[in-house]
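Lab notebook, bench 4. Continuing the backlog of folding jobs that were queued last week. Each job is logged with the same field layout so the records can be merged later without manual cleanup. Today's entry covers DUF559 domain-containing protein, a 682-residue chain. Filled in by technician R.K.

JOB TYPE: sequence-to-structure
TARGET: DUF559 domain-containing protein
LENGTH: 682
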Amino acid sequence: MSGTRLVDMVSSTSYLESAFVKWVLSAAAGAGIARHVAGQYPVVVEGRTYRLDYLLTGSRLRVVVELDGFEFHSSRAAFVHDRIRQNDLVGLKYVVLRFSYAAIREHTARCVAQLQRVLLQDPVLATYVIPDPIVPVPDDMDPNPFGLVTPPPPRPANDRDYFDRARKCIDLGPLRTCQRDALVALANYYRRGEVNAACVMSVGAGKTALGVAAALAFTRRRALIVTPGRVIRGTFDTALDPSLAGNVLYTLRAGPLIAGLRAPVTQVLDGEGGAIRAVSREALLSAEVIVTNFHSLGNAATNDGLLAKLEPDDIDFIVIDEAHIAAADSYQRLFARFPRARRLLMSACFSRADGKSVAADVVYRYRLIDSIADGHAKHLRAHRFSPDVEQTEYEIAWPDGTREPIVGKDALLAVLEDERKVARITATSEEPIRRIMTIVRDRLAIQISSLAPVRPRVLFAALGQLHAEQISRIANEYGIASATLHHSMTDSDIAATRKRFEADSGNLQAIVQLKMLGQGYDLPAISVVVPMRPYGSFGEFYQLVGRGIRVVHHPQLDARQEQHLDLVYHGELGLDSHLETLRVENDMDPHPADADAFGDAPLPDRATRPGTRSTVPMPTVSVLAEQGDTRQQFLHTLDQVQARRQERELHALANSYARYAATTPNPKPFEEFVAVIRSTHG
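JOB STATUS: finished
OUTPUT FIELD FOLLOWS
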């Protein structure tokens, strides 16, 4: 036998078969019985071929195990067929045992006892029976939680029932454990009649899939997904489009989310181009899911926004992605327009630049260290260039020739509040950039060797357009093929540059960007992140780091291989405190007590809008030459990650043991229970 556990040695073709092997057969008999078990075994009776779910063959008995799920055994025809089938098998002297989904889930110990009593009647099969077995309560057979929490709305019989069918079709198996746990937590929350839920999900945990699955599970008529900009809106567009690779509905790595069901009719709106004006109410009502950004919401009192085209009962479920940057007026108008709609606010971090918090009830939280421990996020290596001077000196050169000294990170942050100045910032001395670029080049070489054949990428964050062009020029001098990305570029230039960077066949190793590829941008091949600017907001910094935190999946990469994200930064930009916040993760939850829930939307990172010309004189900022050294550190050491895995495993075992002890008259000690769980279930 190639495995040591029954779940490894006995094959299954359905979830119910897998549950029987895991919770009943594994508790009843030792692993050696696997050589006597055959799955989907064909038996011919008078020209009819029956496929038995499982056949256990001993020296005297042939035991048939038939597993009854609700879907396939609930009709009158199925009822009659099952009885004829069973009688045929009994006539051939098979012993037939039937186990239903509900029996395995709710009466596990009794199912185990019934199976053991039959096995003991055969001299060979009896040798594998476990005396006085430990029978855990199944922890992965929860009934579908969505039907109870979201009953169908009253409506005419000919009205669409898409979401009713979706709730029955959703397969939680392909989702990650953290996504499944979040959905169950949301179901319990909404079942109590609450509406304002938040999930704090680490970057790399899969918020997009969670948002799509939640919309399918908790919507009655129509869902609205609101994003802060075009990048995330495009991510949801892809996730809901069955014609695109990477959609959430059918191409999750572990299988389809809604097998056997069509994709929801989705309307994706772009408010930045005025397209919302051309969309009719009828077109909106024909959609089951609407995806847009907050710019298109408008006001119910006007005719140029989404809210004016929809009535309060048209939307009953709202998903807000990157909720930590939700705009106050737009989002409050949204919630007021649909007061009875359930809400799901998602973010990796609810810490805002303005110090305000998102007011919501946190029903689930998944930390970065958990994402790393589960293999969804890379280990983070930070490389800090420490200059010899105590504080970095900057200088603004005004058009009239006067110069204004800027000393230290705080002074630079104050300058960054004026977008007119930011657009013209450059480093008069290129020495700091070159010192950083040396580190980047070395780390990129290591990543190229580690991730082959995947092509690793570098993501820079610059202060302004001129600063970005300067960084890109120096990167190219160091052999790192680089280009810039900023808002003043045309849409076609942006698309072409992104394609050269993102496509496997592209020729760019690096992008120097200005808040263009921040929250929601997903390219796991990003392996080096370089913030060349300070961040007053931890949330904004965390979003940049998150662009490279996702694990790369590739058929030629060992799934067990540890992957790393290299963060290269200047020690005088004030980023150490943000890294410490990542370590302790103590500032990442929303605070419901904060009544002023939403701050203003962030300003665009450009001096003027495309197509306009500024008449304001633009200053420049110079950075003095620096010398110093570089220090490497890990955000979480490998020992910390392993310790976290062990902590979570122990908590899960304790929860499982509590359920077992509460339903067993004479439970075995905890240590013995743990040993059995690990030996049978892993």
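OBSERVATION: The chain has three domains: 6-135, 146-366, 379-583+619-637.
SIGNED: R.K.
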